[in-house]
Amino acid sequence: MRRHFSWIFLLPLLTSLAFASVAFAPFALAHDTIRRDFSRSPCYPQFERLMREWAPESSWKKLASDSKTRAYTSTVQGADSLEVFQVQQSLLNQTLTAFRERGNDRHQVTLNPQKNCAVEVEAAGNSSLHLPVTSPFTDRELATLIARKKPFYVYVWSPKMPFSKQGIPLAKQAAKDLGLDGMLALDPWLSDSERGTLSGTLASKALIANGALHHFPALMVYNADGEACAPFHGLDTVAGYTKWIKKCLGNAE
Fold first, then answer.
1. What integer pLDDT is reported at residue 251 of this predicted model?
2. How many Å apart are CA 176 and CA 60, to the nearest integer?
3. Fewest 10 Å CB contacts: which of 41, 97, 123, 213?
4. Higher-pLDDT residue of 108, 188
5. Are residues 112 and 154 in the same domain?
């Protein structure tokens, strides 16, 4: 049976992770592939122990990579919520980064060789949603898009989740190739300093009710009748996004 840890007890474990020596369950179906891609990093031993503890029964999907990064994702249905894991290696400095999202709780762990692979833990997110008083993307903006009687997309992202930023041009290209236009909507949990000059904060109750905030990124696609598919969560390639949009609109090949 898969074990679940509360973050209260997990954070002390992470801070001493580099010195831990615990016997763990076999690591994932994609362990060999991740090890082959990530093991050049001096921080890989600490990273592997973290992944064994976080998601020992997960199977991993390789995400789109480029000259700067390699990445994998895994989704696990927990007892009370969906858990999403994403791991990333920087090919520039061999830093390894892991993200874990469960409900409204999001955590990031970074292992940087230049900092002696010390475990850096960052937590974000709240148990309840607090929307800004004024937000550009509301149900009114959504209704305006639906009233055009043309298919469109809304891509919900967060600058705190690097993969969601990487997916913006990929989702845009896939939509453009299929003749769709749309809008970006921003993580409403961001603080003023995190938001900076970014605009388009999501405040549409309809999109939120449809699962737009379950995980970043979320690609929401509406058909010409204003009907939405379930959101597509996670990073994919242009081809992957294209295939999903076609399926969503009933044009699967």
1. 67
2. 29
3. 123
4. 188
5. no
* Residues 7/123, Cβ–Cβ less than 8 Å: yes
Query: What is the pTM (predicted TM-score) of this model?
Result: 0.52
Scanning the structure block, which residue is given the tokens 């903006």? 141
Do 90 and 148 fall within a single domain?
Answer: no
Indicate the residue type of 160: K
Length of the chain in terms of residues written: 253
Q: Count, in order, helices (H) and strands (E) of the chain.
A: 8, 10
> Is the domain of 22 the same as that of 95?
yes
For 35, the domain range is: 7-124
Tell me if 109 sits within 8 A of 98, measured CB to CB: yes
Task: Note the pLDDT tens digit of each residue in 128-168.
Answer: 333 333 346 888 888 888 988 999 999 999 988 888 888 99
Helices (H), the chain: 7-15, 31-38, 44-54, 139-146, 162-177, 192-195, 205-209, 238-248
Residues 90, 187: one domain? no
